[in-house]
Amino acid sequence: MEKVGSTCWAIAEGYIPGSGHGPEPQMTSHETACILNATEVDAEVRIMLYFSDRDPVGPYRIDVPAQRTRHVRFNDLDNPEPVPRDTDYASVIQSNVPIVVQHTRLDSRQSELALLSTVAFPVK
């Protein structure tokens, strides 16, 4: 199989609404990085967060087993500190092996919720 993915990805847009409608945890407003590791080696993933008004935070460390996918809610990241709500941020995701990253947001602040999904930008 050909190499699938990149070892560095950027998501320029991030925001976790501080409130939401509907049953939790399914309808909790959230940001998710959907990570595909199609290699035969476990991926050691590091996520750095960048803000407009303060220093970066990270790395957050995530493992994605070989030939598996993992959906990581940014809401659940808490080491080195929780990802702030109602705050704009961007992220850079790096891995020891090529991965594919898709970004998804569920905004449930209104009962007519919004879902956004896009592939992150692969950095070469």
Characterize the structure shown.
With 124 residues, the protein is mainly beta. The protein has strands at 6-14, 30-37, 43-50, 57-64, 68-73, 89-107, 114-119, 121-122. Strand 6 (89-107) and strand 7 form a beta hairpin. The protein starts with 5 loop residues before the first strand and ends with a strand.
Mean pLDDT rating: 83
Sheet with the most strands?
Answer: 8 strands, antiparallel
SSE sequence, one letter per element: EEEEEEEE
Structural class: mainly beta
Coarse shape = elongated
**Helical stretch count?**
0
The parts where pLDDT drops under 50 for at least 5 residues are none
Strand content: over 45%
| Radius of gyration, taken over Cα atoms and rounded to an integer in Å | 15 Å
The termini sit apart by 20 Å
Oligomer: single chain
The number of distinct β-strands equals 8
What percentage of residues falls in helices of 4 or more residues?
under 10%
Kindly summarize this structure in a few lines:
This protein has 124 residues and is mainly β.
Please render the helix and strand layout as text.
Elements: E1 6-14, E2 30-37, E3 43-50, E4 57-64, E5 68-73, E6 89-107, E7 114-119, E8 121-122
Antiparallel strand pairs: 1-6, 1-8, 2-5, 2-6, 3-4, 3-6, 6-7
